[in-house]
Design a protein that fits this description.
CATH class: Alpha Beta
Distance between the termini: 16 Å
Structural class: alpha/beta
Radius of gyration: 17 Å
Helix content: 10-25%
CATH superfamily: Carbon-nitrogen hydrolase
Largest sheet: 7 strands, mixed
Length: 279
Amino acid sequence: MEQCKVALVQMDSQADRERNMRDMEAAVAEAAARGAGFVMFPETVEYIGEDFMGNASEIPGPVSERFSRLAREYGIWLHAGSVTERREGKPCNLTMVFAPDGRLAAEYRKVHLFDVEVEDGPSYRESDEIAPGDRLVLADTAMGRMGLSICYDLRFPQMYRLYADRGAEILAVTANFTDATGKAHWEPLLRARAIENTCYVLACGQCGEKPAFRAHGHSMIVDPWGRTLAEAGEEPEILYAELEPEALAKARRQVPCLKNQRRDLYVLEAKTEGSVEFC
């Protein structure tokens, strides 16, 4: 792992794709000017409106090319949050990570879909609109190995432990968490994923009113000891923090839970080697 300044861009994306894209471009310019070598966006960053199917993006296409150009122009690693990817049948919820030369370095499609009914909260079936992915994805970046995930994935700790067992040092969570569930669960889940896997957690979320619910905001950067290095409020904001290799090494020396696992008593591997992709 290498030291790096990271920037998480909390946004209030709406149905105006061009406005959202201009906001993203301005945020990248600001973050790069402040020395960030890695910039991350929230889930469904380019469009949040009623018509997901009709507004899904062709990938590759204008949206992915715009992200690629930003990464190349500013010489940064760029985590494009997630976009709704047009495919035959249902679209997918797709994360893309671009290298400083503009290359698409990794792509991950959300595997756990948000089919829930919360009392006094949202009732929503993401699977009615979105097709699930079938791979977990680790991206090798200049900062270190990064496990990719989207929103509801956060509630499945086995996914993140598998990432840590395969060498992840950073866990990236791009999200559009509901305010109803976020108030109760967002921070404890993020800190738990950091502590139990002794990894940095970068969690970048949406904020503001959406068509189906209010987004929670409160993007966070958590270190491997579970300390919150930066946290946003409920409005658009850019968070900054330094990722320190020694903080990761120290946490893993002091509490070596990854080494102390009882693999003879439980199964931690994916069902096949092919279900985890290294990029």
